[in-house]
């Protein structure tokens, strides 16, 4: 039964991504663009490389996404005062209504997927997910290389 938990966890995450993709299209955006806006609202001033790490894509991909968001007037690149080779990403006021909609949608989705679950169960699941996330982000030792003849 435990091995099925991984499948179910993956399926829930996949279905949530599908739902958010559909929602984002209604706003003329992609899920990745929505993620960039949401992350910048929590961590303003990230670099494109930092954002690429968060989004798990190549920096060139983030560059294209940022280009589109910048063209829509939702964010801008600013020179880093300490290192003028680095550009930091900052939201513009035009992003606020979209961020409000993203927040509202996230609340709606959470209400939908937790319908019928009591608050104690939600707390247990949240705690378990945070623990799993922590375990996955801990530095793992490199796998032992097999010696010749093993």
Per-chain topology:
Blueprint: H1 2-26, H2 31-42, H3 48-55, H4 59-71, E1 75-79, E2 87-91, H5 96-113, H6 119-137
Antiparallel strand pairs: 1-2
CATH topology label: Arc Repressor Mutant, subunit A
Rg, please?
A: 19 Å
The SS-based structural class is: mainly alpha
Secondary structure: helix percent: 55-70%
Residue-averaged pLDDT = 89
- For this structure, what is the CATH homologous superfamily? Winged helix-like DNA-binding domain superfamily/Winged helix DNA-binding domain
Secondary-structure element series: HHHHEEHH
Give the total of beta strands.
2
Major β-sheet annotation: 2 strands, antiparallel
Strand content: 5-15%
CATH class: Mainly Alpha
- Strand order across the biggest sheet? 1-2
Low-confidence stretches: none
Number of domains: 1
Secondary structure tally, helices: 6
Overall shape = globular
Distance between the termini: 33 Å
Secondary-structure arrangement, i.e. CATH architecture: Orthogonal Bundle
């Amino acid at each position: 039964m435990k091995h099925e938990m991984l499948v179910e966890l993956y399926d829930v995450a996949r279905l949530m991504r599908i739902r958010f993709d559909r929602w984002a299209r209604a706003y003329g955006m992609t899920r990745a663009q929505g993620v960039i806006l949401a992350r910048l609202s929590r961590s303003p001033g990230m670099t494109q490389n930092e954002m690429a790490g968060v989004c798990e894509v190549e920096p060139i991909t983030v560059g294209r996404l940022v280009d589109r968001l910048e063209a829509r007037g939702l964010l801008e690149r600013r020179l880093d005062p300490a290192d003028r080779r680095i550009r930091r990403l900052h939201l513009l006021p035009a992003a606020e209504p979209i961020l409000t909609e993203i927040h509202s949608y996230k609340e709606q989705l959470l209400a939908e997927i937790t319908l019928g679950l009591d608050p104690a169960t939600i707390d247990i699941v949240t705690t378990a997910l945070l623990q799993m996330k922590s375990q996955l982000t801990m530095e793992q030792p490199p796998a032992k290389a097999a010696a010749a003849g093993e």
